[in-house]
Design brief:
four-stranded antiparallel sheet
Length: 209
């Protein structure tokens, strides 16, 4: 298949990055080299997004084939295929590894209106957040890793408890919520809306409420 567009790029370190295109192939490239150092093949449809975990050990990919996959430079094939979404996987985020229990935890957001939490080492689905009514366009972990925010086409952004999967808070915007982001202290969250506004919520503490 002819490559028409590069869909996403993400750096592993200062010299190495991964890139994906609409031909279902992931290219791992290193500065100064003309050809990729690694090719990953396995997705059946166009790739949307790539993210290395914070240690650069694992690469996650999300696709129009409704799956996410976990890759390692030590393996030729994907380590895990994360199945469960019924729509394309649009967004990936790794949990900040504050302790050993938070290492290699991945969140995925989909056109199917859900967000899922995965153990990337085992491939197990840990949580399924399913209170949105339209596609989820953005997700972001709180700095402590205890909460996850999500923004959706349904004009809401929500805060979830990572461990128990409970909806902590729900906020209504004036338009599609295209991005959500915590501040570094975890005491504020901002959401961008397609009605041209940015909504900033000040939380009483890093508690999600």
């Amino acid at each position: 298949m002819e490559v028409e567009a590069t869909m996403d790029i993400h750096w592993q370190n200062e010299k190495t990055f991964a890139a994906c295109s609409n031909n279902t192939i992931i290219y791992v490239c290193r500065l100064g080299l003309e050809k990729p150092i690694k090719y990953f093949k396995g997705h059946e449809r166009e790739l949307n997004v790539l993210r290395w975990d914070q240690s650069g050990t694992y690469l996650a990919s999300g696709s129009e084939d409704r799956t996410a996959r976990i890759w390692s430079l030590k393996s030729e094939e994907s380590i895990h295929t994360l199945q469960g979404h019924t729509g394309s996987v649009e967004v990936l985020r790794w949990m900040p590894p504050k302790n050993k229990d938070q290492k290699f935890i991945l969140a995925t957001a989909s056109q199917d209106s859900t967000v899922r939490l995965w153990n990337a080492k085992s491939g197990e689905c840990l949580q399924n957040y399913n209170r949105h009514t339209c596609a989820v366009l953005s997700i972001c972990f709180s700095p402590c890793g205890r909460f996850l925010a999500s923004g959706s086409v349904d004009r809401t952004f929500k805060i979830w408890g990572v461990k128990d999967g409970m909806l902590v808070n729900n906020y209504q915007g004036g338009g599609v919520i295209s991005d959500v982001c915590w501040n570094s202290a975890g005491t504020k969250i901002a959401a961008s809306s397609e009605d041209t506004n940015v909504i900033v919520i000040e939380l009483t503490s890093e508690s999600g409420s």
